[in-house]
Design brief:
heterodimer; A: mainly alpha; Helix Hairpins; 72% helix; B: mainly alpha; NAD (chain A); cell membrane (chain A)
Chain lengths: 131, 218
C-alpha cells in the first residue's frame, strides 16, 4: 500500500477536526472534534510504524506504543473534559463556549482593577477562583 | 562496470528506508491500485464523510452517532494496516467508552434533545477557510513527500498482539507505568471536579438524589 493513502486520510481527518474545533459552539461538540484530531494523529502513527517496521526493520514499535498512549490519554482527557463541562453547566446553566467570556480580553480591559459596576463581578471572580 | 555493480549492490543492501522502499514503490503505480488500497480508499471515504457529518450536523446526538461510524472506520483502517491490537483497542475504548461518555455529557447538559440551530458559532466561514487552507497545505506536502513510499503489508503482521505486547513490555514499560499513574490522577480529578459542584447542590437536594447524581456523573 502506498503510504500516501493513510497520510492523506489522516491529514483530511485532522483538518475536519480543526474545522469542528473552530466552528462549533457547544463544548461537547468541541470535545468530539478534538477526538477526531487525535484519531487522525493515531492513524498517522500506525501507518508510519507499519512502514518502518518493514522498511527499516525497526523493532521498537514506537508508533504503536505511542498510539496506545494517545488512546489512554484521550480517554483521560475526555473524562476530565466532561467533568469540567458538567461543572460549568451546573454553575452557569450553559455549555456554550461563546458565552464563557470571563477571561476574554478586550471587552472589559481594566474592569477587574477598579471593580466592574455591573452585576457580573461575582461571576467573574468565581470563574477566576475556579480557574 | 564492476564499480557500478558494486554501487548498485551497496545501494540495494542499504537498509535505509528511502532507497529500499523507493525501489519497491517504483513497481507500484497509483493507477493500478491493489485490493488493499481499494478497500482502504472506500473505508476512508466512509470515514471522512462521517467525520464531516459529525462536525456539521445540527443534531447533537446524531453527531455522536456519526462519530461512532468515524471511529469504527478508523478501526477497519488499522486492520487493513495489519495493526490488529490497535484496532481492537480502538473499538473497545473509543466506540465503547468515549462515545458513551460523550452521549452522557450531551444528555446531561442539553435536556431537550433535538435539532439545535445554535450548534455552529458565528465564525464558521473563518473556520472553514482555515480548515481548507491547512488541508490543502498538508495534503500537498504529504503527497509530495511520500508519493513514492510503499508499505510492505506482506508477511507477518506488524501489529499483532504478540508483537505489540513484546514491544510494549520490553521497551515501553516505564511510560506504561507512568500512564497508569496518569489514569489514576485523571480518575481522582474527575471525582473531585464532580464532587465540588455536589457540595453546593447538596444544600438543597436530598442526600439520596445527590448520591445517585454523583454516581451518574462518574
Amino acid at each position: 500500500m502506498h503510504l500516501a493513502y493513510p497520510a492523506v486520510l489522516s491529514a483530511l481527518l485532522f483538518c475536519t477536526g480543526l474545522y469542528g474545533v473552530l466552528a462549533r459552539r457547544n463544548a461537547i461538540l468541541v470535545l468530539m472534534s478534538v477526538e477526531l484530531m487525535l484519531n487522525a494523529v493515531n492513524l498517522n502513527l500506525v501507518a508510519f510504524d507499519v512502514w518502518l517496521s518493514k522498511a527499516a526493520e525497526e523493532t521498537l514499535h514506537s508508533g504503536q506504543a505511542l498510539t496506545l498512549f494517545t488512546i489512554a490519554i484521550a480517554a483521560a482527557e475526555i473524562g476530565i473534559g466532561l467533568a469540567i463541562v458538567l461543572a460549568v453547566h451546573r454553575n452557569r446553566g450553559t455549555a456554550d463556549i461563546d458565552k464563557l467570556r470571563d477571561t476574554a480580553e478586550g471587552h472589559e480591559t481594566d474592569g477587574h482593577d477598579t471593580g466592574s459596576p455591573d452585576s457580573e463581578a461575582p461571576a467573574a471572580q468565581k470563574a477566576e477562583a475556579t480557574a | 562496470m564492476s564499480l557500478a555493480a558494486a554501487a548498485a549492490t551497496v545501494a540495494h543492501t542499504t537498509t535505509t528506508a528511502a532507497s529500499a522502499t523507493t525501489t519497491t514503490a517504483d513497481t507500484h503505480g497509483f493507477l493500478s491500485p491493489t485490493g488493499v488500497e481499494i478497500a482502504f480508499l472506500l473505508v476512508g471515504l466512509v470515514t471522512l464523510g462521517a467525520a464531516i457529518v459529525t462536525v456539521t450536523t445540527r443534531q447533537l446526538v446524531h453527531a455522536a452517532l456519526w462519530l461512532v461510524v468515524t471511529l469504527g472506520g478508523l478501526a477497519v483502517e488499522y486492520l487493513l494496516l495489519t495493526a490488529e491490537f490497535i484496532a481492537w483497542v480502538q473499538v473497545l475504548i473509543y466506540v465503547g467508552s468515549v462515545v458513551v461518555l460523550l452521549l452522557f455529557g450531551l444528555m446531561l447538559t442539553r435536556a431537550p434533545i433535538g435539532r439545535s440551530p445554535d450548534a455552529d458559532s458565528g465564525n464558521r466561514w473563518a473556520a472553514l477557510t482555515v480548515a481548507v487552507a491547512s488541508a490543502a497545505a498538508l495534503v500537498w506536502v504529504v503527497v509530495d513527500a511520500f508519493r513514492a513510499t510503499w508499505i510492505d503489508l506482506d508477511g507477518a503482521a506488524a501489529g499483532s498482539t504478540e508483537v505489540t505486547g513484546k514491544a510494549l513490555f520490553q521497551n515501553w514499560v516505564l511510560p506504561f507505568e507512568a500512564l497508569s499513574v496518569l489514569l489514576l490522577a485523571a480518575l481522582v480529578g474527575a471525582i473531585v471536579l464532580s464532587r465540588k459542584a455536589k457540595t453546593n447542590a447538596a444544600d438543597t437536594a436530598t442526600g439520596g438524589k445527590a448520591d445517585a447524581d454523583k454516581e451518574r456523573a462518574r
